[in-house]
Amino acid sequence: MHVPPGWLDAQRIRVYAAFVLLVNIGYFALRIWFGCIDRIPNVSPPGWDFAVFWSASWLALHGPAASVFDTALIERIALPLQNMLPTPFVTPWTYPPTFLLVMLPAALLPFPVSCFVYVSAGIAFAYHVCARILPTVRHPGWWLPVVAFPAIWVAAGAGQNSFLTFGLMGLGLIALERRPWLAGILFGLLAIKPQLGLVIPLVLLFGRHWRAFASAALTVGVFCALTGLVLGFDTFVRFAQALPAFNQFVVEYSDRWPRGISTVFGAARHFGVAVPTAYALHAVVAALAASAVAWLWATRAAFELRASALVLATLLVPTYLMPYDLLLLGLPLLWLIRDAARNGWIRGDGVAMVSAWLSPLIFYTPGNWAAGVYVPVIVFALLMVVVRRCVAQQAAHASECASMALACERSGSNVCGR
Fold first, then answer.
1. By C-alpha distance, which of 250, 384, 270 is closest to 319?
2. Which tens digits make up the pLDDT trace of 61-103?
3. Whose CA is closest to 100, among 242, 200, 249, 244?
4. 10-32 and 140-147 are packed helices; what angle lies between their axes, rounded to 10 degrees?
5. Residue 91: exposure state from Cβ atoms within 10 A (0-12, 13-18, ≥19)
6. What is the DSSP string of 34-92?
7. Distance (Å, rounded) from C-alpha 23 to C-alpha 313?
């Protein structure tokens, strides 16, 4: 273990973060100018994804809730809000009915007001979780790198649900040891975006968190039942029917997706790999990530490392991932900082962590660069940092125990036995 890398001293961190913050503000300002004021066609103003959420809410409030799965109906409302012309890249509602239930009240407010309230509440929730993980984020010296994290600006600009999923996963992990029933409820609420909950059952099983597992399963059941009662159970039928079509759309355009799909599958397709082979490569990496998570949780590694591995695997297992989902990278970055403060740094940790912190900047690159296809390499590298830290800590602990045993043997004491 080593001290923090010299090139990451406090002064340099502030300078780098200030520069990235200016880039974020500049891009956000351009979106406002060309999307709201000058209104150049196909330049969306902030809230472009929330426009789909708001449109779905409006349709659900004014007619059968299942109508949200009619792309023609939802585009009629969403495209003007997005300042978009019809394109082959459709604007469908592909979320489960559980998320529609959460967003149902959105259209009770005008679109700009509703978007501001939604994003502000999400940011406040996510900040609360950050402060629980690393209380020093409240310190003035920390606000700059936290606020400058590009994923915050990407998620806020899109009006995405990333702040909500960030908070649910982060707070669920925080509560897992002491309040497992609450943790299960929070994990169960991730049914609003099921692909982000794929690794959680594995963690609860290998970590032997049976109460949290039962609570999560019960929460998902109640959540779905309540959704069916409020919106109609036919929404689940329509959702199941819509998924294959969206999956086919993603596969069809995966090799030329703007900025690339930030998964192993997306990267493979971008470089011309056939669909079956791309799925196979993705499955191999997903299996490696899941195996690392299972090992860390089964061996009861340091909590910070276990939690980090869960989040990183969550970003590696789904085949479809967008830049705003990279907000989740904030969780392992905070936990790794906390672990490094306690156990020291290892050479190379800083490079991997800074690369992960910068990775959401790919959203600002031209679409034909497809820079997002390189993100899985960074995420997997950060997962290897977690695994390496666990191995190093286990070796250090074994060495310490061996030294103590040797000292006891030489002194003829049986203190170690007691």
1. 250
2. 998 999 999 999 999 999 999 998 887 777 889 999 999 999 9
3. 242
4. 50
5. buried
6. IIIIS--TT-PPTTTTHHHHHHHHHHHHHS-GGGGG-HHHHHHHHHHHHT----SS---
7. 29
